[in-house]
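Researcher: I'm preparing a figure for a lab meeting and need a structural model of a single chain. I don't have an experimental structure, so a prediction will have to do for now. The sequence is pasted below. Please return the structure as tokens so I can convert it later.
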Amino acid sequence: MPADVIQTLRWGHDALTAVVEIHPDRAVALRRLAPGGAAGPAGAPAQPLVEVLLPGAGRARASQRLSETAVGCRLRYAGAEQSREGGWHVLRLAMRDDASGLAAELTLRSYEGVSACQAQVRVTNQGTAPVLLLAVTTFAAGFLGRHAGDLDVLYADSEWLGESRWTRRPLGELVPALGLEGHGQHGRGAFALTSSGTWSSGRHVPMGGLVDRGTGQTWVWQIEHNGAWRWETGARQDGVYVAVSGPTDLDHQWSQTLAPGESFTTVPVSVAVAAGNGAGLEERDPLEEAVAALTAHRRALRRPHPDRDTLPVVFNDYMNTLMGDPTTARLLPLVEAAASAGAEVFCVDAGWYDEDGGWWDSVGAWRPSRTRFPGGVEEVLGHIRAHGMTPGLWLEPEVIGVRSPMADELPKEAFLQRGGERLAEHGRYHLDLRHPAAVEHLDGVVDRLVGELGVGYLKLDYNINPGAGTDVDATSAGAGLLAHNRAHLAWIDGVLDRHPGLVLENCASGAMRMDFAMLSRLNLQSTSDQEDFLRYPPIAVAAPLAMTPEQAANWAYPQPDMTDEEVAFTMCTGILGRLYLSGHLDAMGPERLALVSEGVRLHQALRADLVASAPCWPLGLPGWEDPWLALGLRAGDVTHVGVWRRPGADEGAVLSFPHLAGRRVEVRIAYPRQATGWEHSWNPATGELTLTCAVAAPTARVLELREPSSQ
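Model: Understood. Here is the structure written out token by token.
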């Protein structure tokens, strides 16, 4: 390429456009990523498209950021290939750094008609000496030439019982204006979020976003990894950058040695985009438009499974019900009540293998208890089948209790280790799924439960976090953990290959491993362990930001001592997700049980819409203490809306539906149908629905907003 020629490479389809700038004297950079046809600002971006950190060639300027690494700044264009693989458009972009001998290939994949793409980077050592990697980004780009003062940043704190607490905050409050242009240097600080160990969402949801407050242009990204990750955003002289990666040396004790000819592939990252104002999207909030694109992208990426269309209602005996203490006597009447309410799967949760009440640190063999089930667990599972439901069991496959016989039967090498010692956490050892003995053990467990007991549903729980990883057969503890993470995903794939109809639930102390690496394979996600029905709605309302709405298994646990309004409140929490039912239904009177059954039937009637819906938030993103909460699901000409009024709320609320502005809409209360005390009025000019409530909180409703022309 002549020294004075700057080239651009354009890739995408009608819904997405990426423009890459190829400069003779600078690193390859992303100049534009926007919905197809959207103009968007373009400048002269200099943020390298791939960043690589090495010990002997750190950062071009001193900082702790993943921007302006020395290798990243030296990577030069080495060719590109565009192809079509089914519905996917694919770009493979090659780069090379002659000084280190490293080659990098960025692969972008985007599904036809969806304004989102998935990125992954493969780094290959083409030199003659080993190279030690300390960090490699999957996605790195300048955000449309904008500055921090123009933008909002989107992120979510998450922890046990308080999952998915989203914040939208001016980036300028976190990344101050420092007058970088006058100093002739990029910034050194950044706003960064990281995970820890194997709880990919134990501190933060592995997602983030940037929104231009003026134009509405939006990026939302997700890190598709069941382990360690980092994303950051900060200031450069030419605007704001984003850098997203899996594990790093700085944050996760990760480093990886590449011998000559060896390659390393980063964890996948997906980015969804919205154009904002002036691009034909005025009828939808740009953030909601980006989330809608990410939702469609997730559906395209998810593994095919019959459960994706049928979405059977699951009853689980744990939450506020048997709480890990199942017996035949307790289960049989609960099975009958769950079936009468309309459940289609019955999952026996923790404790089914317990003989002495001290099962926490003795798990691992996964043999049914004889003391809890004198006639064998087969009696209970047969009772479930006899009532027309699929039987399910709880399983925590990756752990072996320190008192379990399996702790001595399996070789030491089958466990994660540090310094020659097996890692122990909360009375459990952690299997290393790189080892064939660990895989053989788990395969035997699953094949026995499915083949011999006829189980069709497994709730896969995960209640410990082993930390940085294992130093066995690895350059670093973080590299050992990453290899285990990938072996874990391969194990899940193998299970589903052998048992293609088996339904797998993703659970990890609620939602401590709520990432798309898991959710691309598993059918549904338990969104929390929260036992307080008044605290659950903000979790349920936020859930569709992190997963498709039909995967969001939100607990509804009605109880015999609840009022009708309280029963309706907890049922509404489950209806607009993947209804996940519990509660002592066997002790309910017929009127309360009928109210539960009505909610189940409505959910079942909505399933066809649920699998094609896109979420919206008519009261904005939920706050943890918000007295009014609302979630909408848009499906064609109908919008289904869940609304919760918690204690302390005013008597009224105004919900905004910009996609329905200027349209005549029929509004009805879909659940509970016979309840009174809620009034509504529709303003077509503004697309606002005003609700007034004379019912004492807590109270909730499911509404249907339908355009008459669709009937």
